Please model this.
Amino acid sequence: METSTTKKILQVLIVENNQVDIRMLTRLLSKSTYGSFQTETADSLKGAFEQLSRGSFQVILLDLNLQDSSGLETLRKFTAAFPEIAIVVNTGAYEDDLGLQAVTCGAQDYLIKGKYESYGLSKALYYAIQRKRAEQDLQAAYRRLKETQSQLIQVEKMNVVGGLASGIAHEVKNPLATILYGVEFMYTKIENPDEEIRFALQSIKDAANKANDIIKDLLDFASLSKLKTRPEDITGIIEHALTLTKHQCDKNNIKVIQDFSSGLPRVMIDKNRIEQVVVDVVINAILAMGKGGVLTVKADCEDLSIEDYKKIVQEEEVLKPGDKVLVVEITDTGGGIPPDVMHKIYDPFFTTRRAAGGVGLGLSVARAIMKSHHGWLSIGNLPGKGARARMVFRIHDRSRQ
Amino acid sequence: MKKILIIDDEKDFTQMVKLNLESTGGYKVFIENQAVNAVETIRVIEPDLILLDVIMPGREGPDILFDLKANEVYKGIPVVFLTATVTPDEVDEQEGVIGGHEFLAKPAKLQDLISCIERHLTV
Model:
């Protein structure tokens, strides 16, 4: 028989209505030869929740019927509130169905009062923790699998859009050219056009030009393989991008703060493309802030975190955790991204500003550009107010040239 | 009046180019929508400048250019590729000349088209 000295002491919360049962359980566990236990008790759901949020319990020995909750509902409330703690249901009534249901609802075991001795009870509690861990590992693995899957779907979507782009572009540009030349011709033919005709012609022209811009964005996907990269100073590129968006910032009373570390290394990038990413992100930030706010642009070197490393989709491993990377962070003080659209913001053609003429290609193109630079773009909400975009760049390594 | 020949399978587009160029009063524009007939049309019209599409059914623009350059009589006619196969950015980056040939990206601004034509006609 194993001795208690080989096992870690388990923190157990006994949730039990009946004072006699509490005493019994405490005694059974205190004289256990299987393991060692530190027990606390609660006689209601409310009391138990209070203790669980204060203490560091590993397992709950739970009677389903309490003053303020009963049946499987009790179990559901515990698993929902404390998903990381193992639960062993301990009940007076033997019902096979209930036992199976309890295990399906997230309990790690189901014990019948009076049907166990100290050893069996102790063993059930230790085993419950192992089961809980295994379950959590499985869930984590499942989550990672889902994340990878959604990333792959995203990559595939990009490839499809990229592949279609050049074909579409060619087919659409011809009719667009015809429309635009048609409008030009009308301008020359109609002498003294009235207000309405002028408006109609201008609208046709604007619409055709907008369609042409969309085509241009689509082609950006298709031609991402043709990057013209050179070692560049990122701060110069950011500053230029900010001059392009200065008018919009001034108009909306947005203050811009630049915070660049000195002596930043060069990054291997296609200047025009990265400028496009910065402009896209800044414009999104301006739109999120509306009238008035602060836009902060930071550039600094960091060691690549495991978290960022996992996000970067790399066909060949160019970056490893701990590698020096250059990080540009663009922070706004706007309303943040609504949680229900967060997972869609990089989807091609997703936009929250369709009515205002948004096409929904900005961020999807921006991320594709960052990926093609072996980098990454992520956007998240800040606690409190605003959102932050993080652009991770690989540093140009002169020794490898 | 200078004779411009536009060789492009997009009928509507070629009509619109014709209307615009002729309305300036400076050009007579001829259209060939069938790429396979292009060389014969050039022989008949004897244009001062050719606007040439790249991707066309039957015969592609570069093949037509090749035939033209091989012909002693017509090899001096300036040719400008007017095509949707390139983007304005690509054209700008190479200052309008790709692989030794003049390019305009569709949809080129009418003013840019006219200046390009004028540049070649005055050489």
Notes: DSSP finds five helices and six strands in chain B.
